[in-house]
Amino acid sequence: MNTYKVSGCIVTYNNKDKIEQTIESVLTQTTGVDFTLYVVDNCSTDGTAAFIRERFPQVVVIESETNCGFGAGHNKVLPFLDSKYHVVINPDILLKDDVITQLCTYADAHETVGLLSPQIRFEDGRIQQLGKRNPTVRYLGSHWFHKGDTPSKTMIEYCMLDKPQDAPFPITNATGCFMFFRTAVFLELGGFDERFFMYLEDCDIARRAAEKYEVLHYPMADVYHLWERGSKKSKKLLLIHIKSILTYFLKWGFFG
C-alpha cells in the first residue's frame, strides 16, 4: 500500500472563530497519508496565528506581513513544497472521511491528471451548484442572480449538472474551496495568478491546468463547504469580486 506524501494549505484572515473545526477535520481525516498542513495567515488581527500555533503545534504557520489575498497567500508555500500532491483548502471546509487518500489513489493510477475537484456539498448534504465550464458573462450573470435550489437551464449547463455523478468527467473550471493538485503541476503553473486578490483565481488556474493536463470533477469524493457567499453581503467584497471578473475577462475574453 502506498503512503502518499501530501501537503495542504489553508489561507486565513480573521477566521479564528471557524478555523479550529476545519483544521481538526483535515488532520483527523488525513491519517492515511504522509501529510503536512500549512496555514498562511494574512495578517489577521484576531489572534488566529497564535491560536493555531497553540492548538495545533503540528501545523506549519506562515505569517504574511500584509493581507495579500487568496492566491498570493497560497503561493507563499511554493518554495516549501516537496510533496507528490498538494491540496488547496478553504478555512470553511469540513472533511468527514479520508477523501484525500481516495483522490491520491485515483491520481496515482491516472498520470495525466493535473487537478481533481471533488463533489462540494453544503453541510446538510445538498450539492453546491458550482461552475465547471469556463466563465462567461451569461454564466456568471445566471449564477449571481439565481435564487432557490432549482437550477435554471443556464445553470445546468454552466455547472454540468446533467453529467452522471458516478464517474469522473473533464472540466475546465474548478472551485478554489478545495483543489487537489499534482504538486509538480501546481509548481509548473507558478501557483495562482496574483493579479486576482480574491475570486476567479480558481477559474484561472484550472483553465491554465486544463491546457496541458486532465482537469476532472471527481464526484465520488465528498467535501463539505460552509459557504457564506461573502460578496453578496459585503460591498467591499462585491467590489473585489467585480474587479476579479474584469481581470479574468480581460485576460481570457468575455465569451469563452
Q: How would you characterize this protein structure?
A:
The protein is of the alpha/beta class and 256 residues long. It has a single domain, classed as Spore Coat Polysaccharide Biosynthesis Protein SpsA, Chain A (Alpha-Beta Complex), CATH 3.90.550. Helices cover 34% and strands 21% of the residues. The chain has 9 helices and 9 strands. Strands 1, 2, 3, 4, 5, 6, 7, 8 and 9 form a 9-stranded mixed sheet that branches. The protein is globular, with a radius of gyration of 17 Å. The N and C termini lie far apart (43 Å). The model has no long low-confidence stretch (mean pLDDT 93).
Brief characterization of the structure:
The protein has 9 helices and 9 strands. It has 256 residues and is α/β, with parallel strands linked by helices.
Write the layout of secondary structure elements.
Elements: E1 5-12, H1 16-28, E2 34-41, H2 48-55, E3 60-63, H3 70-75, E4 85-89, E5 93-94, H4 99-109, E6 113-121, H5 137-145, H6 153-159, E7 169-170, E8 178-182, H7 183-188, H8 201-210, E9 214-225, H9 235-252
Parallel strand pairs: 1-2, 1-4, 2-3, 6-9
Antiparallel strand pairs: 4-8, 5-9, 6-8, 7-9
Query: Which shape, going by the Cα principal axes?
Result: globular
Structural class: alpha/beta
- Radius of gyration from the CA trace? 17 Å
Q: What count of structural domains? A: 1
Helix content: 25-40%
Q: Report the CATH C-level class.
A: Alpha Beta
Share in β-strands? 15-25%
Major β-sheet profile:
9 strands, mixed
Provide the CATH superfamily. Answer: Spore Coat Polysaccharide Biosynthesis Protein SpsA, Chain A
> Gap between N and C termini, in Å?
43 Å
Mean pLDDT: 93
Oligomer: single chain
The total count of helices amounts to 9
From the 3D coordinates, which CATH architecture would you assign?
Alpha-Beta Complex
Order of helices and strands: EHEHEHEEHEHHEEHHEH
> Tally of extended strands?
9
What CATH calls the topology is Spore Coat Polysaccharide Biosynthesis Protein SpsA, Chain A
* Poorly predicted sequence stretches spanning 5 or more consecutive residues: none
